[in-house]
């Protein structure tokens, strides 16, 4: 019996912030001095580099766990699975429930326990826990679910990725335009059909790389001096991703009975369009090939980078045929790949 995705669901907030909404923002350098370019030029160059045109922010009264609950309900409905039969709820996030206007993360109780409560699951043997693994968190949760089921410790697992990054960004940092909010969820379980998880690879590089993404002070040094925000060394992350992700993808496909020519779609973490394109180019170059057209569906243009939610949301949109010029048909070989804080890298091969 195979182990497969039995159902998917997502929650995409309705609040849209377009690039032009940042056109009057006074962006600052790390030392607090104004950027030499005007905000309009900064925003234009941002679009050219990242591909992001707009992003979604959650309503002020909505938390990450609440978004995760909605995505989970939709995934469970599509799977037809009774929530009481779940063995695990694995919830990936990075900052917990950050309530609008607050400066603290709330992870007590765990977000997974909050989702279990909201789903009204009575079964105490349904174990709920959170996973902190940077942007690759949802995919790592799927890998863990696969391991539980393979080992006979579980039959069905709910894996969720949810985040409100809009509440941990420095408004004076141009990188703030990258981030967004959202949630995606999948039910993983034993399956009698052809769909199957075929293989995976996962790694953590922490000796030199652990601090590439971190919590740091605002670029505005006075009024915001006591608050910490998500920060990153963009160039180092870009170089790391191009070095490590394509190799992880190669290791994953090489360990399977399939070849790179069998891959129909690559669902990569939606972090930066240029970076994702470079990763795909490098991956195919490792096999002496060039990427075929339409191999990489994208959601970043309209949804931004919602961290752990990007890949499950993208997958759910594909299943619903909501990504223009892209579709999935039974039997398609899909590759999932992600990179993020830690620094962590993972990859999974899947037959749809």
Would you kindly provide a written description of the structure presented here, covering whatever features stand out?
This protein is α/β, with parallel strands linked by helices and 352 residues long. The chain is 28% helix and 25% strand. The strands form 4 sheets. Strands 1-7-6-4-5 form a 5-stranded mixed sheet, sandwiched between helices. A 4-stranded mixed sheet has the order 8-13-12-11, sandwiched between helices. It is globular, with a radius of gyration of 20 Å.
How much of the sequence is in beta strands?
25-35%
Percent range of helical residues: 25-40%
Main beta-sheet strand count, sense and barrel state: 5 strands, mixed
Low-confidence parts lasting 5 or more residues at pLDDT below 50? none
Query: Mean pLDDT, rounded to whole units?
Result: 94
Cα radius of gyration in angstroms: 20 Å
Order of helices and strands: EEHEHEHEHEEEEEHEHHHEE
Q: Which structural class fits the helix and strand makeup?
A: alpha/beta
């Amino acid at each position: 019996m195979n182990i497969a995705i039995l159902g998917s669901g997502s929650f995409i907030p309705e609040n849209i912030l377009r690039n032009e909404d940042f056109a009057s923002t006074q962006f600052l350098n790390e030392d607090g001095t104004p950027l030499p370019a005007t905000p309009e030029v900064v925003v234009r160059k941002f679009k050219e580099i990242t591909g992001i045109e707009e992003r979604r922010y959650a309503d002020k009264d909505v938390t990450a766990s609440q978004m995760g609950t909605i995505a989970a309900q939709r995934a469970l409905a599509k799977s037809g699975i009774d929530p009481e039969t779940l063995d695990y709820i694995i919830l990936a996030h990075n900052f917990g429930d950050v309530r609008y206007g607050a400066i603290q993360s709330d992870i007590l109780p765990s977000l997974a326990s909050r989702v279990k409560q909201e789903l009204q699951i009575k079964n105490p043997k349904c174990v709920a826990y959170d996973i902190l693994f940077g942007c690759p968190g949802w995919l790592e949760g799927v890998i863990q679910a696969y391991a539980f089921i393979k080992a006979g410790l579980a039959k069905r697992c709910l894996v969720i990725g949810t985040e409100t990054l809009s509440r941990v960004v420095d408004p004076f940092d141009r990188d703030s335009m990258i981030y967004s909010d959202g949630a995606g969820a999948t039910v993983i379980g034993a399956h009698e059909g052809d769909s199957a998880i075929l293989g995976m690879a996962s790694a953590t590089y922490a000796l030199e790389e652990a601090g590439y993404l971190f919590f740091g002070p605002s670029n505005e040094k006075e009024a915001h001096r006591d608050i910490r925000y998500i920060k990153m060394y963009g160039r180092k992350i870009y170089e790391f991703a191009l070095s490590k992700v394509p190799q992880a993808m190669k290791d994953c496909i090489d360990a399977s009975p399939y070849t790179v020519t069998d891959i129909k779609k690559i669902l990569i973490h939606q972090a930066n369009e240029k970076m994702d394109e470079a990763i795909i180019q490098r991956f195919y170059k490792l096999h002496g090939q060039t990427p075929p057209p339409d191999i990489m569906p994208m959601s970043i243009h309209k949804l931004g980078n919602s961290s752990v939610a990007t890949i499950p949301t993208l997958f759910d949109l594909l299943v619903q045929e909501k990504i223009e010029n892209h579709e999935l048909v039974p039997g398609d070989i899909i590759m999932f790949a992600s990179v993020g804080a830690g620094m962590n890298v993972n990859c999974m091969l899947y037959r749809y």
